[in-house]
Amino acid sequence: GLAWSQLKQNDLPGCEATATALLEKHPDSPSAVQAIYVRGLARFAREEFAQATSDAREFLSRASDRRQKSD
After folding, report:
1. Percent of the chain beyond pLDDT 90?
2. Mapping DSSP to helix (H, G, I), strand (E, B) and coil, where does residue 30 land?
């Protein structure tokens, strides 16, 4: 999606904003888990380690929940 393209182009603020907007509008969509992940990568690259860690934890929690539901 757009956030991934922005990350690849090193538009880290844009990536973070796009991912956050998706999460605000569609927090329970299947794309939300990927949005958390890509936002965490952008935050890590910007050396926003506390926020990146928070996103990593949220990603792992949601990914685990999705996996358990599909089993």
Report:
1. 86
2. coil
Per the confidence metrics, is the pTM higher than 0.85?
yes
pLDDT above 80: residue 46: yes
In terms of Cβ atoms closer than 10 Å to its own Cβ (0-12, 13-18, 19+), residue 4 is middle
Per the CB < 8 A criterion, the answer to whether 38 and 26 are in contact is no
**pLDDT(45) > 80:** yes
| Whole-number Å distance between alpha carbons of 57 and 65 | 12
Output the six-digit token pair for 35: 């949005």
Question: Where do we find the tokens 């956050």?
Answer: 20
Q: Which of 9, 12, 38, 8 is nearest to 23 (CA)?
A: 38
